[in-house]
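Notes to self after the call with IL:
- keep both proteins in one doc
- input above output, always
- annotate only the second one for now

Protein 1:
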Amino acid sequence: MSLGLTLGWTLGLIGSLGTTELVVILVIALIMFGGRLPDVARSIGKSVNQFKRGLKEVDDEVSRPEPPPPPKSLPRDAEPTRTPDSAKEPQDSLKH
């Protein structure tokens, strides 16, 4: 029984892939798709940045307190109603 670390994978009919086989497969993939990799990496980077920006906006929106509702105003043609206390004329304390 081996307690060492192995980097190989076991696949159904193929058998196990060792480190050398994985390196060869990666080199072949780089040769075939190498011209497009910078564009793919750039678009993935832009997508990740947009996703992070979206998460930050949502987090800011959730943590921001809700502003109080605007005060209700009277229509322009309506006059303020008078209560019975405000209908009385103020008494002049200087007259006796």
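Protein 2 (the one to annotate):
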Amino acid sequence: MSGEYISREAAENAFCKYMGFTSGRVALASELIFAKIPAADVVEVVRCENCTNCEPVWTPSNSLFFCVKLNKPVNLGFYCAYGKRKDGGQDE
């Protein structure tokens, strides 16, 4: 992933550092609090403009692509379950 999402551990560490918690019961309490917060289950989206399955179709606005997987034209912001990044990046 691109790193725009923060891990639970990183959030807890940043919070403790900001609050000046280094050890003891207060740090343990923050650890227990963060453990109860549900983590988001996120997956990075590959937009058609960055996908190996899409080729640009010339239009005056250059905002149309043709998807070979879906066998249809798609717009610039579209995405689907078949997205594979052109630059070889991993899609988790």
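Annotation: The chain has a mean pLDDT of 79. Helices lie at 8-19, 25-36.
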